[in-house]
Amino acid sequence: MSSEILKIENLKKSFKSPNGSVIEVLKGADLSLFKGESASLRGESGAGKTTFLNIAACLETPSSGGVYWDGLKVDGLSNSKQAKLRSGYMGFVFQSYCLIPELNALENVLFAARIADSFNKKTISRAKEILEKVGLSDRMGHMPHQMSGGERQRVAIARAILNRPKVIFADEPTGNLDENTGLEVMDMLLDLCEVEGAALLLITHNPDFARRTSRNLVLRSGKIFEE
Ligand SMILES: Nc1ncnc2c1ncn2[C@@H]1O[C@H](COP(=O)(O)OP(=O)(O)OP(=O)(O)O)[C@@H](O)[C@H]1O
User: Fold this and answer.
1) 3-state SS of the chain: helix, strand, coil percent to 5?
2) I need a surface site. Which of 33, 106, 141, 175 has the fewest CB within 10 A?
3) 205 C-alpha to ligand 1 centroid (Å)
4) Cα 110-116-117 angle, rounded to 5 deg
5) 21 Cβ closer than 6 Å to some ligand 1 atom
6) pLDDT value of position 2
7) 48 lines ligand 1 (CB under 6 A)
8) Tens digits of per-residue pLDDT, 207-222?
């Protein structure tokens, strides 16, 4: 079995802008991501990083090209099959945390299991263990508004890893945090991915954070380059 978990081939994506003109964002982007490796993706604002990530995660459809998970072409699958693929293979961390305001830290983490229909007693202990690993053993009952930005992002990281995803997509996870907190969160994300054997695709504008991953990718002129 190949250790290539995600393959993106000759990906093209154009959008129609409100004035009717066509914006060609991705112009033949390729990527091979292998099990357990970490890769950062940089690029100027508007280069198409989020678009690329969304297509890789089947959240958006490409204009042309192929998206393969574990060797299976997935970009033409039904919405329900793509949703199943997402809950089984992928974890997400966003700049804005995306926690549910009405749920406490533990419940937010467990929400990932509810979505994947894998909620049971074992999941509760795993959620607690992960929250301990990210240093939040005394914050499990806190609501999002009772936590700092760094704490909220650690909850989001715990939620992303709960279902043992093959790949974590992190889109500017430190964008709302100060430099030191960002660094702590970054280290925690990298450590957790390593311990859990999850690959990481990290979108970041911060070159210092980008250097902490084993591969450094740049999206330029609609294509991906390895640095
Ligand atoms: N649904 C859409 N309709 C029209 N244009 C879009 C749409 N989504 C994205 N775009 C355009 O595609 C380009 C790439 O956007 P994207 O969000 O992928 O960039 P990015 O590299 O992630 O930028 P940033 O670093 O600022 O977040 C932008 O010029 C954006 O305006």
Assistant:
1) 35, 30, 35
2) 141
3) 15
4) 85
5) no
6) 64
7) yes
8) 999 999 999 999 999 9
